[in-house]
Amino acid sequence: MDYLRSLFENLGFSNVETFIASGNVIFDSPSRNSQALEKKIEAHLLQSLGYAVATFIRSTSELADIARHKPFSEIELNTPGHTLFIGFMAAVPTGAAKKSLLAASSKSEDFHLKGRECYWLLRTSFRDSKFSGPRLEKTLGLPVTLRNSTTVRKLVAKYS
Predict the structure, then answer these.
(1) Model confidence pTM above 0.90
(2) 86 near 119, Cβ under 8 Å?
(3) How far apart are CA 62 and CA 70, in angstroms?
(4) For residues 158 and 121, what is the distance between their CA atoms, to the nearest angstrom?
(5) Which of 28, 36, 50, 85 could form a disulfide with 15 if both were Cys (CB 3.0 to 4.6 A apart)?
């Protein structure tokens, strides 16, 4: 995580921190153009690491809105063994991709899309799921990075 932090510092960002070895990097930038920042970071990571890293930027206020969103009932969200994952995407998926993902809902998992986020309620263990990150990306036709909703709430609590 120290190396990842240094890569962001080399780009001129300030107050760079990593969060719980999850690939989350928090930083300040004078630029407010998240798409330009994503491209700048992706190019730097490719050059530095030798492989592509999809990058998804959210402001602290956007992250707070994402964490507050309740796509499923409180009963579903609080049932032991149920886990809510949030998939971050760089763009809003197409209508066909949305339809395809929602059609994949089952007794063991359910999906909800809102803007550039995909909420995935897993009612079974991750290893027993028929879905995975790569299948989610293929279905949506977009790169996706998944975070447990608990991680997202912890980020919001620390940085808001």
Answers:
(1) yes
(2) yes
(3) 14
(4) 24
(5) 28
